[in-house]
Amino acid sequence: MRLSHVSFRYRWRDPLIIEDADAELSPGDVIELTGANGAGKSTLLRLLAGLARPTAGTITGRPAVVGFAPDRFPAGQPFTVTQYLRHMSRVRGGAPWEPWAERLALSHLLGLPLGELSKGSAHKVGLVQALMAEPGLLILDEPFAGLDADTREALPAIATEVAAGGGIVIASDHQAGLRALHGVRHWSMIAGRLKESTSDTPAPEAEPAATGAATTARDAPSAAAARRSGPPGGPSERRHATVAVTLPAGDVQRFLARMHGEGFQAREIEESG
Ligand SMILES: Nc1ncnc2c1ncn2[C@@H]1O[C@H](COP(=O)(O)OP(=O)(O)OP(=O)(O)O)[C@@H](O)[C@H]1O
C-alpha cells in the first residue's frame, strides 16, 4: 500500500491538515502513529481506511478487507452487543465474531444494549467489529484508551498475530502500547508532515497541525463532532430521522464502515434477491 504526495484539508480554503505525505506500508508491518492532539492522526487513519479522500495525491494498494476501530465507538445504536456484532458479521460475509468477543472479555455483556455499555466495553465492541473479518489492513484509533489491564496486554499480541498473517496494522497511540513490539515502525504527524523515525525513539509530539490557521480548524467544532455529540441539551438530542438507502450489495460493507466512522447508526439491512 502506498501514499504518494497525499495532502488533505477538510474544506476548501482551510489549511492543509496533512501535507505531502509519502509512505509505503507492507504486509506484516505494525506502525505506531504518534503526534500531538489535533496533529492529524485520526485524519490520516481515515484516509488510510478510505473513509476520506485525499485533497491531493494518491493512496494505492489498499488491502481488500479493512478493519477500522474508531477512537469513539458510536454506541448510541438501538442494538444489543450480539445484535450489532451479528449484523456486522453478516455484512462481512459471516465472519466469526464470537472468539473475538470472548478474547476481549465481552461474553458477559452480549445481551446489553450498546448504549448501556461502559466506554471501555463499547470500545471493545469496536475492536471486535474491526478484527472479525481478518483484515488485511487493521486501523486502530487510540485502541488502548479506556481499556482494562487485561485487554491492554492482549492487544499487542493481537496486533502481532494480524501482522504475522500478512496484515498491516497501524494504530494511533498516545499510550505507547505497541512500542515494545519487535520491528514496530514509528510514524509521527508534526506540523502537518508525516515523518518516520528510524531509531527506536519516536519523534517528539511537538506541534499541532499544519499552519497557524490550523488553530481555527482545530478549535472549530467539526461537522462530524457535532453529529456525534448532537445539539447541546434538551429533548432535541433524542430526535432522530431514519433514511432508507438502496445501494449495490457489494458496496454495503464500505458504506457501513464509512457511516459508522462518521458516527451514524445503521438500523436495518435487507438484501433483495
Ligand atoms: N470533520 C472535520 N472538519 C473540520 N476539521 C476537522 C474535522 N475533523 C478534524 N478536524 C481538524 O483537523 C485537525 C486534525 O484532527 P485529528 O482528529 O485528525 O487530530 P488527532 O491527531 O487525531 O488528534 P487527537 O490526538 O486529539 O485525537 C484538527 O485541527 C481538527 O480540528
Provide a concise account of the structure shown.
The protein is of the alpha/beta class and 273 residues long. It has helices at 41-49, 81-91, 98-103, 119-131, 149-164, 214-219, 223-229, 252-261; strands spanning 2-8, 18-24, 30-35, 56-60, 66-69, 137-141, 168-172, 185-190, 193-197.
3D architecture notes:
The chain is an alpha/beta fold and 273 residues long. It has a single domain, classed as P-loop containing nucleotide triphosphate hydrolases (Rossmann fold, 3-Layer(aba) Sandwich), CATH 3.40.50. The protein has helices at residues 41-49, 81-91, 98-103, 119-131, 149-164, 214-219, 223-229, 252-261; strands spanning 2-8, 18-24, 30-35, 56-60, 66-69, 137-141, 168-172, 185-190, 193-197. The protein has a six-stranded mixed sheet, sandwiched between helices. The chain has a three-stranded antiparallel sheet with strand order 2-1-4, with helices on one face. Strand 6, helix 5 and strand 7 (168-172) form a beta-alpha-beta unit. The chain starts with a strand and ends in a 12-residue tail after the last helix. Residues 206-238 have low confidence and may be disordered. The structure holds adenosine-5'-triphosphate (ATP). The site of adenosine-5'-triphosphate (ATP) has 17 residues, from helix 1, helix 6 and helix 7. Residues 200-230 have a biased composition (Low complexity). Pfam families: ABC_tran. It comes from Nonomuraea deserti.
